[in-house]
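We treat protein structure as text, and this decision shapes the records that our systems exchange. Because each token names a local backbone shape, the row as a whole describes the fold. An entry from our holdings is shown next, in its original layout:
>
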Amino acid sequence: MNDPKTAFDLFVCGGEEHVPLLENLLPLLLPYGRVHLGSCFLSPDDLRRLDGLYDVLHEPHHSRDGYRNFELFAVRDLHRLATAPYFIKLDADVQLAPDWFRYVEESIAAKPEAVLFGPRCGAKTIDAHLGALQITGATKVIGGFYVGRTDFFNAHQRFFDLAVRDTAWQGEDTLRSLVVHAVGAGDRLHVIDSAGRVRIHRPNTMNP
């Protein structure tokens, strides 16, 4: 693979309570792309603690509700801010093995057609309307860790706008996976086991 610093944008969101987690996570990301930190709740002291551990700071203001603010940031902004061919979204509490990036490289090599992949899927499938479309029984890649193709999602921005406007809110990972299925690309969405290299602790998820 070409230089990962130009091939990947990596996005992590976190608040004041996540600073110790971010101090451990961010150094594992820096060698592998441009690291974006999203937060409206980091104090100047927090940012000093994290200085040098990220490349770009984003302070989204989509909603007064903190959780929904970051969900909307993940839905609306990640692929538009990314300039590399791929973007990676991680939660601050994800645990990465030292060789975690091998998982990304191996997955892209095995599934070069993939537009969205990650190590865990939701325990429930997606059942939703999007415009005139009815999506039922569709797999979703959970939001703790996923890799997306930047050009694919930018090409389908109008479906994100529809999803945010017309779909009952189901979380950013559901909406991103929903868009993939809505444009007929469900066969390019993959759940690929990381063999423990990416560990996501969520009660409502499943291994592939």
Notes: DSSP finds nine helices and 13 strands in the chain. The longest strand covers residues 8-13.
